[in-house]
Amino acid sequence: MNVWIDTHCHLDAAEFAPDREAARAAARAAGVAHCVIPGVAPSNWAAVRTLAHAWGDSYALGIHPLCTPEAGEGDIEALQAALAQRVGDARLVAVGEIGLDYFVAGLDGPHQERLLRAQLRLARRFDLPVLVHVRKSCDRVLKALRELPVAGGIAHAFNGSLQQAQAFIAMGFKLGFGGALTFERALHLRRLAAELPLDALVLETDAPDIPPQWLYRDRAERAQGGPQSRNSPAELPRIAQALARLRGMRAQELALATTRNARAALPRLDVLLPPNGAGFQAILAPDH
After folding, report:
1. Which pLDDT belongs to residue 278?
2. pLDDT at 273
3. Per-position DSSP letters for 58-123, written without gaps between them
4. Which residues touch 35 (CB under 8 Å, ≥6 apart)?
5. What is residue 220's predicted lDDT score, i.e. its pLDDT?
6. What strands lie across the sheet with 32-38, from one edge to the other?
7. Can you tell me whether residue 177 is helix, strand or coil?
8. Does residue 63 contact residue 75 with C-beta atoms inside 8 Å?
9. Which domains does the chain have, with CATH numbers?
10. pLDDT beneath 50, residues of the chain
């Protein structure tokens, strides 16, 4: 069995409330040996840490751009305190999910950017990589990173230009690819996934969001009460197969490369994961 790392998975989300344990167990049975569970606001930091410790996974702490309307200086102070308290926790691997979102209407851009910069300063202070949200905001995020360089990380759900991809890579970042690349109409994204250097790519689901093509339901289907399109980390191996086909390579080769890339992006994973692929079998054991 190939072994995978889901570098971005919101397993604490309400969508998983009915079957959270079963969803993680199904992913493990499918070969997903490790999940990185990002924080999005002070209200979920304890939950992501608890889940990471319970399942042998890892977590990040941060304030998501969609949560910035309710966030202020007090939340940055809370994040600083949380990072100071948990920096010795091997399962804390990054500051995230942080970043900018210029897709959702009504968000205060300058406020988002102030909070992003404050969180980048904390990442620098605690020498942690970052998980950055870059939806319709790659250039602005890159500008902030040039002003406040950090210890690398992952550009989550990347869908920017080739030039923007190269800029992130030059800064030591890996690029996260997931279910969006499975849509045949996503020509630009599929071209990037196929042509970017292999050592720049990591895999993610962003579950319960960004479902792959085989789970997607359009608005009309959802309105009719059809099955929901909840994404899950168990879908990662099939997403990876789609990426392997795009690149004309074997899934096993992709699994080894993306695992290596995830370790490079998030160096604290080295303490949590076995030194070679064979050692992953213990992590995947049902009684783990």
Report:
1. 53
2. 93
3. EEEE---GGGGGG--HHHHHHHHHHHHHHTT-TTEEEEEEEEEESSSTT--HHHHHHHHHHHHHHH
4. 5, 6, 9, 11, 24, 27, 55, 57, 58, 233
5. 74
6. 4-6, 32-38, 58-61, 92-101, 130-135, 153-156, 173-177, 201-203
7. strand
8. yes
9. 4-13+21-267 (3.20.20.140)
10. 287-288
